[in-house]
């Protein structure tokens, strides 16, 4: 990993020129916003800012008005898999406790890595209409000298009308039925060693990748170095165009559906029809389904 970006999400693009593909078509709002946009909307009562975390970083300082959301509250273990979507009832309860309602514009950033994109994928899955990414997250916010707070804001419980989108999720059966066929492009969001079959993840060795999958590590979507900012839209389009056939549905996976939520979200941002294989390689390997070692898809 070249850097540890603090990443966020909302629904308005200030970093990229907005276009139909970069907007939430349901409400005609962009899917990526800048820190400047957020600073000018912090007092908007419809904007709910979430900091997703897996530690106590929220207490060390957060964007004023941001509300804490534990990453572990939006994933569950099931059938031997470690990071699956919880029940619809649990998801709704978690987001309502965070004060999110049907009309809320949800701005998400994370204390590290793709926790923010996993939260956005979950909002997308339950049919919430207003969400997006805060480009640069807290790291960029601090770099610009903007204020931070250590106070937890007071807020009321929200009310969500949930309309699940199971088509956002790919299963092993769905992937198997589309292997080697036109219309689907697989993106493997894992490290070189995992993709090649010469590495491992937390002590779990990888034998390779799903046949036909092209590799795109989530860090490649960012500018690199010390910058937590996304690459410009044209470069993101080139990264996907090199791996996705025109008109294809994109299906992303990693080891457990965590890192792949980032390539899912950016595919969504670029206007691709997209699915996340929630069980990912852990599920594929557990089922003893075919894999391919080496650099060739």
Q: Which features would summarize this protein structure in a list?
A:
Oxidized Rhodanese, domain 1, 25% helix, 2 domains, alpha/beta, 9 helices, 22% strand, globular, 5-stranded parallel β-sheet, 6-stranded mixed β-sheet, 297 residues, single chain, disordered N terminus
Task: Describe this protein's structure.
The chain has 297 residues and is an alpha/beta fold. It folds into two domains: 8-143, Oxidized Rhodanese, domain 1, CATH 3.40.250; 166-286, Oxidized Rhodanese, domain 1 (3-Layer(aba) Sandwich). The protein contains nine helices and 19 strands. Strands 1, 4, 5, 6, 9 and 10 form a six-stranded mixed sheet that branches. Strands 11-19-18-12-15 form a five-stranded parallel sheet. A two-stranded antiparallel sheet has the order 2-3. A hairpin with a 2-residue loop joins strand 7 (76-78) and strand 8. Helix 3 crosses helix 8. The longest helix is centred in the middle third of the chain and has 11 residues, at 115-125. It is globular and about 50 Å long. It starts with 7 loop residues before the first strand and ends in an 11-residue tail after the last helix.
């Amino acid at each position: 990993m070249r850097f540890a970006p603090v990443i966020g999400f909302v629904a308005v693009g200030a970093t990229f020129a907005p276009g139909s593909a970069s907007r939430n078509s349901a409400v005609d709002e962009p899917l990526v916003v800048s820190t400047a946009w957020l600073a000018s909307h912090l007092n908007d009562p419809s904007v709910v800012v979430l900091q997703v975390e897996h530690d106590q970083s929220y207490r060390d300082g957060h964007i004023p008005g941001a509300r804490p959301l534990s990453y572990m509250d939006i994933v569950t273990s099931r059938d031997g898999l470690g990071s699956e979507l919880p029940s619809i009832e649990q998801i709704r309860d978690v987001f309502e406790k965070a004060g999110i309602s049907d009309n809320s514009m949800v701005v998400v950033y994370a204390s590290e890595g793709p926790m923010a994109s996993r939260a956005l994928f979950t909002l997308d899955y339950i049919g919430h209409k207003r969400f997006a990414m805060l480009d640069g997250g807290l790291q960029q916010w601090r770099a610009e000298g903007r204020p931070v707070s250590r106070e937890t804001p007071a807020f009321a419980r929200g009310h969500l009308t949930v309309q699940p989108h199971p088509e956002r999720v790919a299963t092993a059966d769905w992937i198997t039925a589309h292997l080697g066929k036109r219309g689907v492009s697989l993106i493997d969001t894992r490290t070189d060693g995992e993709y090649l079959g010469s590495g491992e993840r937390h002590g779990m060795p990888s034998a390779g990748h799903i046949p036909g999958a092209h590799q795109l590590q989530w860090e490649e979507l960012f500018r690199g170095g010390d910058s937590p900012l996304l690459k410009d839209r044209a470069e993101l389009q080139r990264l996907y165009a090199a791996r996705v056939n025109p008109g294809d549905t994109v299906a992303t996976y990693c080891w457990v559906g965590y890192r792949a939520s980032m390539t899912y979200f950016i595919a969504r941002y670029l206007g691709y029809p997209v699915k996340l294989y929630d069980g990912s390689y852990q599920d594929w390997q557990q089922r003893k389904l075919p894999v391919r070692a080496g650099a060739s898809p």
